[in-house]
Amino acid sequence: MPLPCGTVCSWARLATLYRVMTPTLIWIITLLVAYLLGSIPTGYLLVRFFKNEDVRATGSGNIGATNVARSGGKGLGIATLVLDALKGFVAVAFAWHMAQRLGFPSGYDLEAMAGLFAVLGHMYTVWLGFKGGKGVATALGVFLYLMPLTTLFAVVIFAIIFALTKYVSLASIISAAALAVLCIFFDRRHQLIVDLVYIAIPLLVIVKHHANISRLLNRTEPKFGAKKKEA
């Protein structure tokens, strides 16, 4: 059965619009989608749905995987980690799709910026009054797409630091700093925007850990899995 003329014409107009979209509009749409993907508060939603609790009112008050694991159990913590990482990965994959379909000669700068906006969305989610997580898992997803082998090396660094200290925050800070250096060193393209993103995302992650840094210096930072002492 042939499609009605109105339907065919609508799809034809949409296809034409898709082909003639200006680069500026493509950038705006891609970065907006990346931000909205990153802004999905997965940890908050999981704890609210499965525990009927507000994760922001427990533990550190953070909506990330570590606090979700402390507040809602390891299962929810792992789910939050995976979904938060997936947000960053999908945001960059969407940017790649837009660049490829619209014939950008090199879409790597668009992909990198989409990753940055996904992390910003997670850190400053519009759905929770622009207060979100610290961006570690979302940044992981972004870098797994952009620089997979280098990112896996940073994950090994994280695992070693965590195994030795049991401090998730310390492992996150050190591995984030290492990731910035490694990506700039191993990425031979050396595009300015991309290199700036390699620095910006880890720097944002470290800055979001400012309270943890203070507690680490004061030796009051709780180790992962440690129970609070009874009063």
UniProtKB/TrEMBL annotation:
One of its GO terms (biological process) is phospholipid biosynthetic process. SMART domains: G3P_acyltransf. It is found in: Cell membrane. GO terms for molecular function: acyl-phosphate glycerol-3-phosphate acyltransferase activity. Keywords: Acyltransferase, Cell membrane, Lipid biosynthesis, Lipid metabolism, Membrane, Phospholipid biosynthesis, Phospholipid metabolism, Transferase, Transmembrane, Transmembrane helix. Its main location: membrane. It comes from the Bacteria. It catalyses: an acyl phosphate + sn-glycerol 3-phosphate = a 1-acyl-sn-glycero-3-phosphate + phosphate. This is Glycerol-3-phosphate acyltransferase. It comes from Terriglobus roseus.
